[in-house]
């Protein structure tokens, strides 16, 4: 029963995200806590990762990870990148997620043990 409820929440989230992207809207930038956003995305994707025998190793930063951005779009970007990593690991493995902060920027890093991309795919990026 709990699995059904979790999956219903996931479906609801996906439908809501489609609705957001289907209608044009004016971006509303605000201060976004990247640790908070990413934690919610990881929790959302953990059931899918577990089904595929994939562990998600997410290191939250002890530093402030706030940027000005549109929270829903940031969430969608993180969701897409991590979901791609889950799908790139067909036989199970680990995804490593962390932030690297310098004085002027914050890097979001996702490493996985997936099959990688061939040169043609890389050229199309």
From TrEMBL:
Keywords carried by this UniProt record: ATP-binding, Kinase, Nucleotide-binding, Transferase, Two-component regulatory system
Where does the Histidine kinase domain lie? 1-125
* UniProt entry tagged with the keyword Transferase: yes
For whether the record's keyword set contains Transmembrane helix, the answer is: no
What are the protein's GO molecular function terms? ATP binding; kinase activity
What does the entry give for GO biological process? phosphorelay signal transduction system
Tell me the InterPro entries matching this sequence: HATPase_C_sf, HATPase_dom, His_kinase_dom
Domain of life of the native organism: Bacteria
Record protein name field: Histidine kinase domain-containing protein
Q: What is the lineage of its organism?
A: Bacteria, Bacillati, Bacillota, Bacilli, Bacillales
